[in-house]
Write a structure and sequence with these properties.
Blueprint (H helix, E strand, L loop, with lengths): L7 H6 L7 E2 L2 E2 L1 E2 L10 H13 L10 H21 L7 E4 L2 H16 L5 E5 L8 H10 L2 E5 L9 H6 L5 E7 L11 H10 L4 E4 L3 H4 L4 H4 L3 E5 L10 E5 L1 H5 L11 E4 L4 E3 L13 H17 L1 H20 L4 E4 L8 E6 L5 H10 L2 E2 L1 E3 L4 H7 L4 E5 L6 H18 L1
Parallel strand pairs: 3-15, 5-6, 5-7, 7-8, 8-9
Antiparallel strand pairs: 1-2, 4-10, 9-10, 11-12, 13-14, 14-17, 16-17
The chain binds pyridoxal-5'-phosphate.
């Protein structure tokens, strides 16, 4: 195993699932872009929350409700610290990025955009950062303006800025492509967009797990994250919303917890962020997310990024040596996410099935990126996406499994 700034063996020991076998082979989990595995501390926190500390939050005056509320609410500050948000009240807790972006679409954009106004998007967005804007196109006549990726899979920040016109009211862009691994210079985009008075929403679903993030330094207006990719439970997540934008928003989902008073003919709302958090939330999921973020911060995001860069360089060199493999995206500074096809007509599903027989878990399909697949002229790819617990030995297993797939399908 190549040396790393991380004690990867110790980290792997924290993730019980990594020691299991799949199809009689040691599991090589390379589907982290879809969802990451969970460390024992998160599993323990979930069990403890249900076994010893569970009640509904915000509502009761009894001991357990107060305890659960305290545990749940304390996560807001953890997320603010993880994201570098100046104020924890700028963090809205939710079920993940999809909900976060829909909140911006319904709560902010529907209030502030009109027919003919434009939203600038990149062609490599995930459907979670496309479909909510199509809703606005269909319902309000908002115009979607697309910026293509370059041949190497990079996204030219200058082209995104150039796409901002007098009718542009929002830029909605990923910080890291879930297919190409491309890292986007969102800081430059935010600075230029801000100078033109245009807010920026950053989809941080993929980036926040691979690199240190500081929303204050990035200068964005919205930054969405999703807990299950951050080694936390599914059904947890959050969105950072700059205070000025919060003041321009209306609630999107109505119900309990987000109100001040309700009568037969009137309703007044709680202050943000509660105003945007209706109904019983994912209490235990959010508590688990807080523990996951603390776990990552205790290891250090800089170290995680350095380890994954080493893995990325190693994997890139190995995969480049397979002249029958087409890796999509080779942008400088890309993250350890590799989408590929084989020369010839081999289907991504067949490749992934062969890899699975060798214990290697990858994703196959469109990866919720229809416009990008069209742009690349592909119907599907296989994707190997790495995490802090992956090793260079696992890259070698991937390569061996790919050689077998090539032999059988190539
Ligand atoms: N954005 C990107 C870049 C993603 O990769 C994903 C998930 O794959 C999402 C958004 C949606 O996240 P979720 O399904 O957790 O809401």
């Amino acid at each position: 195993m190549t040396s790393s700034v991380l004690d990867v063996a110790a980290i792997r020991a924290d993730f019980p699932i990594l020691s299991r076998k799949v199809n009689g082979k040691p599991l090589v989990y390379l589907d982290n872009g879809a969802s990451a595995q969970k460390p024992q501390v998160v599993i323990d926190a979930i069990t403890k929350a249900y076994a010893e500390e569970y009640a509904n939050v915000h509502r009761g005056l009894h001991f357990l409700s107060n305890l659960a509320t305290e545990k749940y609410e304390s996560v807001r500050a953890v997320i603010a610290r993880f994201l570098g948000a100046p104020d924890e009240n700028e963090i809205v807790l939710n079920s993940g990025t999809t909900e976060g972006i829909n909140l911006v679409a319904y709560g902010w954009a529907m209030e502030n955009l009109q027919a003919g106004d434009e939203i600038v998007l990149s062609v490599m967005e995930h459907h979670a950062n496309i479909v909510p804007w199509h809703f606005l196109r269909e319902r309000m006549g908002v115009v979607l303006k697309w910026v293509d990726t370059e041949l190497d899979g990079s996204l030219d920040a200058g082209k995104v800025v150039d796409a901002i016109g007098p009718r542009t009211k929002l830029v909605a862009i990923t910080q890291l492509s879930n297919v190409l691994g491309t890292v986007v210079d969102v800081k430059t985009i935010c600075a230029e967009a801000r100078a033109k008075g245009v807010p920026v929403l950053v989809d941080g679903s993929q980036s926040a797990v691979h690199m240190p993030v500081n929303v204050d330094e990035i200068g964005c207006d919205f930054f969405a994250i999703t807990g299950h990719k951050l080694y936390g439970p599914s059904g947890s997540g959050a969105i950072y919303i700059r205070k000025e934008r919060m003041a321009e928003m209306r609630p999107f989902i109505g119900g309990g917890d987000m109100i001040r008073e309700v009568s037969k003919d009137a309703v007044t709302y709680a202050d943000p962020p509660m105003k945007f958090e209706a109904g019983t939330p994912g209490i235990v999921q959010t508590i688990g997310l807080g523990v996951a973020l603390d776990y990552m911060m205790s290891i250090g995001m800089d170290k995680i990024a350095a380890h994954e860069k080493m893995l990325c360089d190693y994997a890139r060199a190995k995969l480049d040596g397979l002249n029958w493999l087409n890796v999509q995206g080779n942008a400088p500074g890309k993250a350890a996410i590799f989408s590929f096809t084989l020369n010839g007509a081999a289907h991504a599903h067949d490749i992934s099935t062969i890899l699975d027989k060798k214990g290697v878990a990858v994703r196959a399909g469109q990866h919720c990126t229809g416009p990008l697949m069209t742009h690349l002229g592909l119907t599907a790819t296989c994707r190997a996406s790495f995490a802090m617990y992956n090793t260079t030995d696992e890259v070698d297993v991937l390569v061996e499994a790919l050689e077998l797939a090539h032999e059988l399908l190539g």
